[in-house]
Amino acid sequence: MLSPGSLQLLIGVVHVVLAVGVSAHIVLTKDDPRSAIGWIGLVWLTPLIGSALYVFLGVNRIRRRAGELRRDRVGAGMTPTGSHALPQPAVPYERIPRDLRPLAQLIGRVTGVPLVAGNAVEPLVDGDEGYPAMLAAIDGARSTVAFATYIFDRGAVADRFVDALASAAARGVQVRVLIDGVGARYSRPTIVGALRRRGVTVEQFLPSAFPFSHPYFNLRNHRKLMIVDGATGFCGGLNIRDACLRALAPRHPTQDIHFQFRGPVVRQLMSAFAFDWQFAARESLDVETWFPPVDDAGPVLARGIPDGPDEDFEALIFTLLGAIAQARRRIRIVTPYFLPDPPIIDALKVAALRGVEVEIVLPSRGNLRTVQWAQTAQLGQVLRGGCRVYLTPPPFDHSKLFTVDGQWSLVGSTNWDPRSLRLNFEYAVECYDADLTARLDAVIDAKRAAARRYNLMDSRLRPLPVKLRDGLVWLAQPYL
């Protein structure tokens, strides 16, 4: 048995060895010197405990685990942008608006996806416009339906989609449905069994071992994609649930916006789905069947942007930063959750300080209480920089819109929070078109007209206990 002195010496040696090794890992992997200094201080000043805390909390396993899962379950020849990232002719540089050419170049280099011409984009407000358009497309399908969603909740809306998908499968259409493994559990029993009983081929994306849903699980497929006959695509924020259909007068309604696409960009949506499908189902979708030639359908220049904690890591963060830096007149953001990283906060402040009008439209009452508290604590930073914040009244607004200078817009499934930008798989589409951006700005105008301005005085006048609560929750911002 070791004497007290020998035990103390052994613990000291172990501490030094661990601290040296952990400090080396911190120096080699951390990008933020403040974070690195903090962790190194904790490791050295709290023997053994600091090293243990770093191993469990300080190492970013999300990206590594996502990459390992993709590599393990996806066959050879796959690419981050999709299992069949077929060559597409990029838009000639001269066709891109002069002010936006640097942004288009940036996003092209970050994503490796070409900007393509000839697209038509139709905004669909709430499930009242989105669901009928999606159901009509399924009913008219002749060869294929690819459908991916985060939540497929039981109810009247789900019943309509199950009927439409089952009818398509029964008449010989190839149907593939991909539901996130956590999002599938928002209702019990899950919709998966009902789809399979009706003859629909369905898989879950990373099925959860837990028998319940939770909004803070990581590595979720938050994408909402539907592609019919390889020619008509849908993407946006709409999940499949009764709350999004205002005509049903649900108890807790949710506002949202979805988009219908026609033209060459649909092949990029299909490519993203095919990649996710092969990952989840281990089935490679036939190119000839699922990727038919697509004709030009409209004037919009567009590009799909896949994002996730794998090879596409931080694609959307660079997109947001690039668009903010490119803005000359106006930036408009609509998001249900606003907890961006410090570089994005700083970029918005810099844009406002150089004279760009920055508007951020948020719901006054969110559906995730802790996110709302942390978000409120962080709003003071953008308000002090000169950004304008507007809070919309209930019902909860789940819409995601981002427009710049009346010429460029970003739509899709992405929220402005760490979970969307770093921890989950998302899909967005950037669009270069003044007419489309004007339509989206009109949607934002309507939201802002009903909203109340939230200013710096509102932030300062919160009661001290509320400020403390919000600030303490904000410390967990990277995990919310």
Q: What does it look like?
A:
The protein is α/β, with parallel strands linked by helices and 480 residues long. Helix content is 44%, strand content 19%. Strands 4-3-2-5-6-8-1-9-16-15-14-10-11-12-17 form a 15-stranded mixed beta sheet, sandwiched between helices. Strands 7-13 form a two-stranded parallel sheet. Helix 1 (4-29) runs parallel beside helix 3, helix 2 runs antiparallel to helix 3 (49-58) and helix 11 (315-326) packs parallel to helix 12 (342-353). The chain is globular and about 80 Å long.
Number of strands: 17
Rg from C-alpha positions? Answer: 24 Å
**Average pLDDT score:** 88
Strand order of the largest sheet: 4-3-2-5-6-8-1-9-16-15-14-10-11-12-17
CATH architecture of the largest domain: 2-Layer Sandwich
Report, as a whole number of angstroms, the end-to-end distance. Answer: 47 Å
The structure class reads alpha/beta
Q: Tell me the fraction of residues in β-strands, as a range.
A: 15-25%
CATH class of the largest domain: Alpha Beta
Helix coverage percent of residues? Answer: 40-55%
User: CATH superfamily name of the largest domain?
Assistant: Endonuclease Chain A
- CATH fold topology of the largest domain: Endonuclease, Chain A
Looking at the structure, what is the overall shape? globular
Provide a brief overview of the structure.
By secondary structure, the protein is an alpha/beta fold. The chain folds into three domains: 8-59, no CATH class; 114-298, Endonuclease Chain A (Endonuclease, Chain A), CATH 3.30.870; 315-479, Endonuclease Chain A (Endonuclease, Chain A), CATH 3.30.870.10.
